[in-house]
Amino acid sequence: MTNTSKPSGKGKYLRRLALCGAIAALGFAGAAAPALADGDAAGQVAMRRLTQDQYKQIVMDVFGPTVTLGGRFEPDMRDAGLLAVGAAQVSVTASGFEQYDLMARSIASQVVDPEHRSLLIPCKPASDKAPDDACAKAFLGKVGRLLFRRPLTQHELDAQVAAANAATVKTSDFYNGIGLALAGLMEAPEFLFRQERVEPDPDHAGQYRLDAYSKATRLSFLLWNAAPDPELLASAESGEINTASGLKKQVDRLMASPRLENGVRAFFADMLAFDGFSTLAKDTTLYPKFTSQVLRDAQEQTMRTIVDHVMVENADYRDLFTTRKTYMTPLLASIYKVQVQFPDGVLNPWVPYEYPEGAQVAGILTQASFVGLHSHPGRSSATIRGKALRNIVLCQKVPDPPGNVNFNLVQDTNNPNFKTARQRLEAHRTAATCAGCHKIMDPVGLAMENFDTIGGFRTTENGAPIDASGELDAVKFTDVPGMGKAVHDNASTSACIVNRVYSFGTGHAPNKSESQWISSTLATDFKESGYKYLALVKDIATSDVFYRAAPPQTGALDTPSKLASTGSQEVQK
Amino acid sequence: MGHAKLPGATRRSGAVSRGLALGAVGFLAAGFAAHGAQAETRGYAVSWFYMAAESQNDDCPQGTNPLSEEMATKYMKAMGKSDAEIEALKKDYPANMYGPMYMRGRRDGKPVNVYADPTSQPDPNIKTAQGHVAYGFDLDGKDGPNDFVDPQTGAKGVDDMLYRAVGCFITQRASGGQRPTYPAIQWDMTRDQMPAWIIEVSGIERDAAGKIKDGDVKLGIYRATGPVTRNAAGDPQADMSFTVDSNPRTQNVVHAVMKNGTLTTDPFEFHMIQDPFAVTEYHFKKTQIRLALNDDGTAKGVLGGYQPWLPIYEGFALGGSVNELNLSIDAPGIYYALKKLADFGPDASGQNQYISSSYIIEAVPGFISHPNADKTSMVSGPVKLAATH
After folding, report:
1. Closest chain A residue to B26 measured between Cα atoms?
2. Considering only residues 334 to 373 of chain A, which have any Cβ-Cβ distance to chain B shorter than 8 Å?
């Protein structure tokens, strides 16, 4: 008999997801507590929705590359310069949940299909057509631990096994049953959200820290942008990760892994706002060289440049804005109009390339991924580029323009009186309401005017020579390399990356106490390391502060069992 | 991800790459201004190469050759098909006509593949162009009654019997800078897979204003190791990097004279591999090339010379009835016309084996590297620009 007042299955989940939002809110309420004294820095815990890349990575790690994903993800949100921070402020909409549901069912059906089951399911049921508690438990317990980044509670496991059994009875198919239970696990907020839990810190009376599993998860996502592997989970289970040596051992292991590149790529893709590429369009009538392959190559060029620079060469992070070394594909070389000899018979080959000394480049800032992403579809934009440089590289907030700005003069690239962007912007800046912000953005953005909207090099605009001189925070320069050096030498450049990496790992912008620690300790360490990115990441990953937590709010849900039971109560209400 | 150190943009024996300069003028900032007096080398990738045509309203006084449906009807009648049978074949035209057209040749009363054996059908005496305007060169030093006037240079005595042979097929006609349909299709369909043709002009000098000076230059035409890449508009991407194929059958270097920004070569023998869909291998005698180097970095010009006429026929015949019926050409008719109008290189019987012809060349800027002596270094990927032009 159906009880009409009882929520539907989807309704239950949506209620649980709504509850997640409430929990996240509690976490942020905790952040509002009085700042701790210097040296006792601690941030709020976060509950972050998995990003698209993280979801895909987990599915690949747990089930292997032959399980494919279909469907669309909810859009991520950027906050404090990072999607990783915005992920702590988003929930799941009803339509988004439908997509998660579709994906979960699709993945689950592949996992239990005849092709995969012998590999992915660690046991065989006594009968394919009847429930088998032991086998269901073995499978769901193993997979659940990897998906939830912690062992399932007894209550959770029993509930999943019961669900699998019920479905098995109805369909007379054991694999159908555990497939449906698996889909349930993948739709659960415990999977879709990285829920951090705190516990009293035994080494610091009155303070809190992440519990071992949350610690392992924060570490794994920082270094690999993926969920903890079994070895890291075992370290959490044994408590080893809570010892300094145990933590160091895991950090060293994770940093020695090739998967570290995933983490490096994820961080820089987030910091450089590469999600903007998904909606980037160019006027191909004006710029026929711009194709979808160029779009992909541009992103990969910057990623290769960064990975090579900060990982392989372990070089000074700031040199990313002055380096002449990069990688080229045939299409990119044509965009930049440089000659490169590519190997024969290789589809879209990548080759290392170094611009000659004196070349008018400024590292990743003059690559198509930056100048192209921060431009209009049909023309460059010194203002947008200047703003992006300040926001992204220097972590400086530039206000949005007022709503009543007249852009006519700036947009008219055919005005014979104002042939170059510099001339147009100078005229535009005569308006007092515009001048203030443009003074911050334009002088550095104009230095990139040698690059058109797709990154192609040019020396003139409308027949008039381009003047690439400029200024950044009172440092004047005459050309593109000068701009790169100004960025390299700017104190905000190194301060920004320190702040961003920390925020990427914790999922929140540093509070006052954390900021004090970052500027006094972390930034100093970074400088002493020679501004080595990996040293910074390791410093963060092995620090106490990274895993500390502000005291939880009264009534906060701090254990899986409480969460599960409260979730159930909420559903039952 | 090792990072091989590259020497960057190197120059070779005083010659500065124009292709390189296009990019490096800016990248190298002031570097190039100081080298204004040095000879310059410019690189190009051929974007189009097709039979030249400057069709005039009156150069086919008896009208153009019939469209394919009329032509097919004529051949079916000649084969003894009844009107009803022909009407049936014309249903879903041209789908049902491909087979009969293919086997319309007759040997000893038996059907044969007419494209493999064009004389298995009688000469249809296709209409040939009678005009006096065509691009090209005076290849034989004479201004005969069959010769043309070049619409671009005004030069008389232009030899282009290929245009006479095929100029009255509607898909071979064009004027005003447009490309004739059939040759353009042939090139367009082959260039994605075919290694690119690349051009290198070296020894260019400029005056203080940047204008190309008159004087001697060197022209190289080579085949690259890889094809052109299309841009978003479907045209060849400009400024791509190419490596010269070391195959001697694709190497052509000739002296040329630059005048008013257009070079004209001395006569030379031109060899180039193309694609069987058009002409497998070009072999022109007494070749001359005229090429204008445009300020926007592109180049356009004319190649003229004597080429063997049989491979031209084979290019038309390869597509068989699909080509004939969709592009309204008469392949065996072209065979007979080429043979009759061939004007150079007689064999022992007196039959000329070559026909004068002219082709339009269009090119976009590109970068050209010559292969290193040690080719294995290319396999490993890292770039060596020692041979950069």
Report:
1. A459
2. 334-344, 346, 349-361
Say yes or no for a CB contact (<8 Å) between B27 and A361.
yes
Q: Going residue by residue through chain A, which has 573 residues, state the pLDDT in tens, using 9 for 90 and above.
A: 333 334 444 455 555 444 433 333 333 333 333 334 445 677 888 889 999 999 999 999 999 999 998 778 888 999 999 999 999 999 999 999 999 999 999 999 999 999 999 999 999 999 999 999 999 999 999 999 999 999 999 999 999 999 999 999 999 999 999 999 999 999 999 999 999 999 999 988 888 999 999 999 999 999 999 999 999 999 999 999 999 999 999 999 999 999 999 999 999 999 999 999 999 999 999 999 999 999 999 999 999 999 999 999 999 999 999 999 999 999 999 999 999 988 887 888 999 999 999 999 999 999 999 999 999 999 989 999 999 999 999 999 887 776 766 667 667 777 777 777 777 766 666 666 666 677 777 888 999 999 999 999 999 888 889 998 999 999 999 999 999 999 999 999 999 999 999 999 999 999 999 999 999 999 999 999 999 999 999 999 999 999 999 876 665 444 444 443 333 333 232
Of A289, A341, A353, the CB nearest to B378: A341
Closest CA to B360 of B186, B184, B191, B158: B184
What is the 8-class DSSP label of residue A312?
A: I
How far apart are alpha carbons A125 and A130 in whole angstroms? 8
Tell me the ipTM for this assembly: 0.77
Smallest Cα distance from A115 to chain B, Å: 36
Strand partners, B305: B357
Top residue of A341, A342, A457, A479 to mutate, by most chain B CBs within 10 Å, is A341
Residues of B with CB under 8 A from a CB of A: 1-6, 8-9, 17, 19-20, 22-29, 31, 225-226, 229, 231-233, 235, 237-241, 243, 367, 369, 378-385, 388
DSSP codes joined into one string, B306-372: EEEHHHHHHHHHTTHHHHHHHHT--HHHHHHHHHHH--EEE-TTS-EEEEEEEEEEEEEEEEEEPPP
- pTM to 2 decimal places: 0.82
| Residue among B23, B24, B381 whose CB faces A343 most closely | B381
Cross-chain CB nearest to B29 (options A341, A352, A358) = A358
Contacts of A408 (CB under 8 A, 6+ apart): none
Longest CA pairwise span in chain B (Å): 79
